[in-house]
Specification:
Chain lengths: 254, 291, 358
């Protein structure tokens, strides 16, 4: 059973079909790429999959369960987490608190226990503090834990978004242009980290990316979107060598 | 008094709300901020007119002109000093500043004129018209006529003139308007100027209908006019007009038939219901946040 | 435990010690007779305002929503607490038993009001939320101002209409007025005092600081910083905002009880828009986040005009200017840079580089 399957998924804004007739099947443990020129509807797909938008046609299945009309909160609780293209960190909170927000639904102490500092509060705060530090270590940010998130450099803000999303303990992680604004060295490092995350945290990853080197380097399969519809789909190297894709997307880009 | 006469005085009160609501709705549409101080600009306009008429003994037409001019200057200065530096600040910061300005104006008036209400001489010559057995005062007729005239002129100005269309463009998309060569700053200033000028007209009509003025004269009508603007759909000019009139009628009728003490509670109750049932008001547009 | 948590705790203990210190100093001044009667008379009102400010700070500073109806919740609490004390005066004669019960009842009734009002209000955002809370504050004031409640041997009389009250045939011998329209509630026992106020403040501040530093507090701050991201992280934003709103209402209600038991007559017209703004001024001057700064701002801004007679006439003007100037400075890059330069960390850093330490 695929972990994520969309069936004829689409959304219309006014007369514009931003996404139309989308079929994607992602197997558990895959690293899957979603690519396409600007305005092709990639982020809209993420917004559909995370409940920010409700689809106007079709549906999608997560772990075999139809969840297409759920709220962002319940979709996250089911096990899909995301990052944002236009970074959306909790700017006035510390780096580590950003990650701890991700753990929100893992904490089991009640509000009263939190106020009175009794019962499960101390044990769990310690436990998740350590877990948050571990996550930050994955991204080499353990020394910045106490900084305000808004004071981080751009590249690290992107990494913190990934760490925060991972803290919600998702089965499927959606990364929206994780390498945007990074230099080639940082991108190479990020590729390693993403692979590491997939292998060690038991996650399936769907990512949107413009950097073809990153996509061809780590994605096993890709879907190419153009004007909201699927242009090509399949094994990464096959798709990226498809003349149709090269003219529509890569040719246009260079 | 009959239902009809309550109804007419409701339209008259509503026309004043409508004029004030126009100021709120235009500023909200263009600067995307709730100008909390708008009600107090009205109060200042009233005091200026009061000083010109009663203290200086100026003719009525001149006093009204002075009041309009004073409010325009006040509105533009407030925008330049208090709001412009905050254009990129959080909505919370802008709102708090606006509340501060409102409070400042109230207390300046309090220090200059004292807290006791002063009686205001109506600017409308004494006359009344019999209609269906009900006598309608001159203030009522003039108020309604002025409001209708202003809304017509304003609609023509916005849709037909260059500056008016610039205002529309800025309210649609500030960034794009700037790229098209529209001077956003002066457009926002113009909006504040027009809104404040209308506030002065509203203040003279308000103080003529309820012939007194105090530092708190503007606060309640201001909040109610904002309610009217929300009711009609914030950003919409016909919406502000209709919202104002409807609210005036609701207030007048609830004063007459339910309870004069509870009429404010009823008006605010209407605001809450409107926001819950139709948050965008009658003619409002929905704003979506880009994710 | 990490340094971070330790330094947070340190900050908390500074706040607690500060509160205790102020309490001890004021008590000493009163007991030794150094303080004037006027000073003594200000202690309960200031405490009430401190409670209002810390609770409003939870809504404005931490949950990021501007509530302009805080006085309304205080009003609800004050009326509920006063009614309870009035009715129980002869049943529970021990004041130190009755009064804490009144405080908790006032808080609970205000919290329920906060919850009911929060359901519609918290669906709105920003400016709309502000104006609707303002409207609710006015409605509450308006309703209490027109409320008549009395009892006699025939039972309970309740009306929202003055003439119904005057026309009603009461049994004169057993009639007891509870709420009398605009004249409000008279005869509330004067149970309030500074010691109780201090105890309530300490409990509230400890609870609030603990709350902020728990998962609930983080969810409230996350919803403030970025609503869409918070939802994507599985946080129920409405619930987070509601939690802040209800807790703030609860504390405001308790403050209302402390306030009403310090007065001869309780009238609803006191709980107007101006009172809500006043509390907002304290929160804004306190920097809208740090509880300790909000408490300091409240004490200074409330006590200063009382202490300086000349300033008293201009107190409202002063408050207005504080609001505007604070917002303009907070959003001024030059001032932000200046403030950074003045911070202790920066001073130490500069000292180190000057000393040539590498």
């Amino acid at each position: 059973m695929p972990i994520l399957e969309t069936k004829d998924l689409g959304i219309q804004f006014g007369g514009l079909k931003a996404v139309d007739g989308l079929y994607i099947k992602i197997e558990k443990g895959q690293l899957y790429g979603l690519i396409g020129p600007n305005g092709a509807g990639k982020t809209t797909v993420f917004n559909l999959l995370t409940g920010v938008y409700q689809p106007t046609s079709g549906s999608f299945y997560f772990d075999g369960e139809q969840i297409s009309n759920s709220s962002p909160v319940s979709i996250n609780k089911k096990g899909i987490a995301r990052t944002f293209q236009n970074i959306r960190l909790f700017g006035d909170m510390s780096v580590i608190d950003n990650v701890k927000v991700g753990f929100h639904n893992s904490y089991k102490y009640s509000m009263l226990e939190g106020v009175l500092r009794v019962g499960r509060y101390r044990k769990q705060e310690k436990e998740y503090h350590d877990k948050a530090m571990e996550l930050l270590k994955v991204f080499g940010m353990e020394n910045e834990a106490k900084l305000l998130a808004s004071n981080l450099p751009y590249g690290k803000q992107r990494k913190l978004e990934i760490a925060r999303a991972m803290a919600t303990n998702p089965k499927l992680l959606l990364l929206d242009e994780p390498a945007a604004g990074m230099n080639p060295n940082e991108t190479a490092e990020l590729m390693e980290t993403i692979r590491f995350v997939r292998d060690n945290f038991d996650m399936t990853i769907l990512l949107i990316e413009h950097d073809m080197k990153l996509v061809s380097g780590i994605c096993e399969e890709v879907t190419v979107l153009n004007f909201g519809t699927v242009l090509a789909q399949g094994k990464t190297e096959t798709v990226l060598n498809d003349p149709k894709v090269i003219t529509a997307y890569i040719g246009e880009d260079d | 008094m009959s239902f009809f006469s309550y109804f007419v005085s409701g339209i008259s009160l509503g026309s004043i709300y409508a004029l004030i609501a126009l100021g709120y709705t235009m500023v909200y549409g263009i600067a995307k901020m709730l100008n909390f101080a708008h009600g107090d600009v009205i109060m200042i306009g009233g005091y200026v007119a009061f000083t010109a008429i009663t203290t200086m003994q100026f003719p009525v037409w001149l006093s009204i002109c002075i009041s309009i001019l004073a409010c325009i200057i006040l509105g533009v200065v407030i925008e330049k000093i208090a709001y412009k530096p905050l254009r990129n600040a959080t909505p919370l910061a802008i709102l708090i500043t606006a509340i501060g300005v409102s409070y400042l104006l109230q207390n300046v008036a309090l220090l200059i004129f004292g807290s006791a209400a002063k009686s205001f001489t109506s600017v409308v010559p004494k006359f009344s018209v019999e209609l269906g057995g009900v006598s309608i005062t001159g203030e009522t007729i003039v108020t309604i006529a002025v409001a209708v005239l202003i809304v017509i002129c304003l609609s023509i100005f916005i849709n037909k003139t260059k500056s008016g269309r610039a205002m529309l463009a800025v309210s649609e998309d500030k960034g794009a308007a700037q790229l098209m060569g529209i001077n956003v700053n002066s457009t926002i200033s113009l909006t504040f100027a027009i809104g404040s000028g209308l506030a002065a007209v509203a203040s003279v009509l308000l103080c003529s209908t309820y012939p007194q003025i105090s530092p708190y004269t503007g606060a309640m009508p201001g909040i109610k006019a904002f309610t009217a603007a929300v009711f009609g759909g914030i950003g919409s000019i016909p919406g502000a007009m209709i919202g104002g009139v409807v609210l005036g009628i609701i207030e007048s009728l609830s004063k007459a038939y339910i309870s004069s003490e509870l009429s404010d509670a009823i008006v605010f109750g209407v605001l809450i219901i409107v926001l819950l049932v139709r948050p965008t008001g009658l003619f409002g547009k929905k704003f979506n946040e880009k994710v | 435990m990490s340094k971070k948590i330790k330094s947070r705790n340190l900050d908390k203990y500074i706040t607690y010690s500060f509160l205790i210190l102020i309490f001890v100093i004021s008590q000493l001044l009163v007991m030794t007779g150094v303080a004037s009667n006027k000073f003594e008379g200000l202690l309960v009102p200031i405490s009430v305002y401190v409670l209002l400010a810390v609770s409003l700070n939870l809504v404005v500073g931490f949950s990021g929503e501007l509530s302009l109806g805080h006085a309304g919740f205080m009003c609800v609490g004050a009326y509920a607490g006063s009614l309870f004390s009035l009715l129980m005066q002869n049943v529970i004669t021990v004041w130190w038993l009755r009064f804490p019960m009144a405080i908790i009842i006032g808080g609970l009734v205000a919290a329920v009001a906060g919850f009911l009002i929060g359901i519609p209000v918290l669906r709105l955002r920003g400016d709309y939320l502000a104006i609707v809370t303002l409207a609710f504050g006015e409605i509450i004031k308006n309703l209490f101002n027109n409320m008549y409640l009395a009892i006699d041997k025939n039972g309970v009389f309740f009306s929202m209409n003055a003439s119904a009250y005057t026309k009603h045939a009461f049994d004169a011998a057993t009639k007891q007025d509870l709420i009398k329209g605009a004249q409000g509630i008279t005869g509330t026992p004067n149970d309030s005092n500074f010691v109780i106020c201090f105890i309530v403040i300490m409990i509230c501040v400890i609870a609030l600081l603990n709350l902020i530093d728990s998962k609930t507090g983080r969810s409230i701050k996350a919803a403030r910083d970025n609503r869409i991201a918070a939802e994507a992280m599985g946080i129920d934003v409405t619930k987070a905002k509601m939690t802040a709103f209800v807790i703030a209402s609860f504390i405001a209600g308790m403050a209302g009880v402390l306030y009403s038991h310090n007065l001869r007559t309780l009238v609803a017209s006191k709980f107007d828009y101006n009172l809500s703004i006043l509390v907002l001024v304290f929160v804004v001057l306190g920097g809208m986040k740090n509880m300790r700064n909000v408490i300091i701002a409240t004490i200074i801004l409330y006590a200063l005009p009382e202490a300086l007679r000349a300033l008293n006439d201009y107190r409202m003007l002063l408050y207005a200017i504080v609001l505007i100037v604070m917002m303009l400075l907070n959003n001024n890059d030059k001032f932000a840079a200046f403030k950074k330069k003045l911070s202790i960390k920066a001073l130490i850093a500069r000292f180190n580089t000057k000393g040539g330490v590498k």
